[in-house]
Design goal:
Blueprint (H helix, E strand, L loop, with lengths): L1 E2 L3 E6 L2 E8 L8 E7 L2 E8 L3 E8 L2 E9 L5 E5 L5 E7 L5 E5 L11 H19 L32 H34 L2 H12 L3 H33 L7 H32 L4 H23 L6 E3 H4 L1 H14 L8 E4 L10 E4 L6 E5 H6 L2 H16 L2 H35 L10 H17 L1 H22 L7 H16 L7 H7 L5 H10 L15
Parallel strand pairs: 12-14
Antiparallel strand pairs: 1-2, 2-3, 3-4, 4-5, 5-6, 6-7, 7-8, 8-9, 9-10, 11-12, 13-14
Helix pairs in contact: 1-2, 2-4, 2-12, 3-4, 4-5, 5-6, 6-11, 8-10, 10-13, 10-14, 11-12, 14-16
Bound molecules: zinc ion.
The site of zinc ion has 4 residues, from helix 10 and helix 13.
Length: about 550
């Protein structure tokens, strides 16, 4: 087979059929208009908004046939010039021809069913999410429905609760957030699928070739355009998310500022994402069989660099200043935790982030590795939380630091990525064999082209959605460990570590309007941290020093 972006020739049984491809025609896609065998034109096609007719040599006489298509563009009948039906075609749900009549030679049959199925599925799931009746009086999950937990047994007194008005808001908000999350994931997948099924990805690649001469520049333009398209496609849902957050007074960021942030995201994605995608695409083309292993190897340093560079990019979005500048007494108390934990977090590595301009939420985090590693506290937390609770949060973050959670997560990610890439390469290969002809992919090395790489991106996005609960389970384990560490770290530094932790969790939950009783399934699938309820319940009962015991991380 030969290609110039579109298929131009096919050899079967020693006969070479050449295709004359019309890049611009009323159907909006490149289309085959003429087939030539051994220099003789054997068949011609006429297009309107879709394929109208073929005209082919039958017993040396030009014989026209007219296509009758159904709503999805699949060919159902052929008629002759007297408008009599000569051929009929029936398909099963997967687009395989199950019944046909007539003997007219014809290469155009089924189209678009799989796409329609996917869209119907998306729509159905969306509707299920949207029309599920709101149930503000939802009772707390019965203890029989609660997951068996070694850390927090179901208790009659819940350690985290909200006043009635906030409870109703929190329940509605969590439903909206879950719906938006599901819709966003499905929509992201649908966009990539649509790009392939409509052959826009193939057309985009052809367009870059018509515009630029050098292959790497064509590729760069292709992936830049792909990033812009997918970003614009997800913008409406992101905007709904921001509107919801503003409505519930969690975000206080104005729209101009929000749009500015979206443009920065896009700029960074173009600057770093497009060259990386081009590089990976190149790897596939030079090693079509083992590319997944090479991409895995190449992504390891890239992941390290991105973690290292994250704190250097953050100032593009938020203002940071040394915590000691405005909160010297707090820093002095934090130093006590530092001394107890043995971490070497110097005051210069403690930062205050001006989050209050954008959010009413409370947060703190550790970020970076090596020389960029640091502790960041939102100013909303220092403004609204008692120092004891800031100490507990700092203890939790120190736990991430001391227990090497960032390197451990990176190692886990690297190990997981190996199998994810292997699986995705297999799945993408199958997709290419199944749909490649329809999507305009090369038959011999279908994934090597730019549009072929979109198939791989689709597989990776799908893996991201499917594996979200696995990644979250991993993360919840570390967060729970950090909770234990944090509570032990403030032992002896605050009057009552249990009360302090429970109070901090209540403040946290109230600030983010977190549902006090999320379903175990939602917690399993969506939560990167254990729910505030789980965390508060655990904290309330955790006192390793009672009855002369010792802590898991601290002797005393
Ligand atoms: Zn944490």
């Amino acid at each position: 087979m030969l290609y110039d972006g579109n298929r131009v020739a096919k050899t079967a049984n020693g006969l070479t059929t050449r295709y004359l491809v019309d890049e611009r025609n009323p159907s909006g896609l490149p289309q085959v208009v003429e087939e030539t065998v051994n220099g003789v034109v054997t068949r011609q096609y006429t297009y309107g908004l879709q394929l109208i007719s073929e005209n082919q040599l039958v017993n040396n006489a030009w014989t026209p046939s007219f296509y009758v298509q159904d709503g999805s563009g699949s060919v159902r009948q052929l008629t002759n010039s007297a408008q009599a039906v000569t051929d009929t075609y029936d398909y099963d749900a997967f687009g395989n021809k199950v019944n046909s009549t007539g003997t007219t030679a014809n290469n155009y049959l089924y189209r678009g069913g799989a796409l329609r199925k996917l869209l119907m599925l998306c729509l159905a799931l969306l509707l299920v999410g949207l029309i599920a009746p709101p149930c503000p009086a939802e009772p707390a999950p019965a203890s029989t429905a609660a997951p068996s937990s070694t850390t927090a047994s179901p208790t009659s007194t819940q350690a985290y609760s909200l006043p009635p008005d906030k409870l109703a808001k929190a329940i509605t908000l969590s439903r909206i957030d879950i719906t938006l999350d599901i819709a966003g994931s499905l929509w992201g997948l649908a966009v990539l699928w649509l790009l392939l099924a409509t052959r826009w990805a193939a057309a985009l690649s052809a367009w870059t070739e018509s515009l630029l001469r050098r292959r790497w520049m064509q590729g760069l333009l292709f992936f830049a355009a792909l990033i812009v398209i997918t970003t614009l496609a997800s913008l409406p849902l992101d905007a709904i998310g921001h509107a919801v957050s503003r409505h519930y007074e969690i975000s206080v960021q104005n729209w101009a500022d929000w749009l500015g942030e979206q443009s920065k995201n896009l700029g960074l994605a173009l600057l770093f994402g497009a060259p990386v995608l081009l590089f990976f695409n190149w790897i596939v083309s030079v090693s079509p069989r083992r590319y997944w292993a090479w991409i895995w190897l190449a992504s390891l340093p890239l992941i390290l660099i991105s973690v290292f560079a994250a704190p250097l990019i953050d100032p593009l979005y938020n203002k940071f200043e040394p915590l000691a500048k405005t909160h010297p007494t707090l820093v002095t108390r934090l130093e006590q935790v530092v001394a107890r934990t043995g971490t070497k977090i110097a005051p210069e590595r403690m930062f205050l982030m001006k989050a209050s301009e954008k959010s009413n939420g409370l947060n703190a985090y550790v970020t970076g590795i090596g020389s960029t590693k640091r502790f960041v506290l939102w100013d909303t937390a220092t403004d609204r939380l008692p120092d004891d609770e800031v100490l507990f949060i700092f203890g939790h973050e120190s736990g991430h630091y001391v227990l090497n959670h960032i390197p451990k997560e990176l190692t886990g990610m690297a190990a997981g990525l190996f199998f994810v890439l292997l699986g995705c390469a297999t799945f993408a290969g199958w997709l290419a064999r199944r749909f490649g002809a329809r999507w305009g992919l090369d038959e011999a090395t279908p994934l090597s082209s730019r549009q072929g790489f979109v198939v791989l991106l689709f597989a990776l996005s799908l893996a991201g959605v499917v594996l979200q609960p696995a990644a979250n389970t991993f993360s919840r384990h570390f967060e729970h460990e950090a909770d234990i560490y944090g509570q032990e770290a403030i032992h002896g530094l605050v009057a009552d570590p249990q009360k302090t932790a429970v109070s901090a969790f209540n403040h946290l939950g109230e600030a983010w309007l977190e549902d006090p009783n999320p379903s175990p399934f939602v917690e399993f699938w969506e939560y990167s941290h254990p729910s505030v309820q789980t965390r508060a319940n655990f904290a309330m009962h955790y006192d390793p020093w009672a009855n002369g015991g010792r802590g898991r991380f601290f002797g005393k």
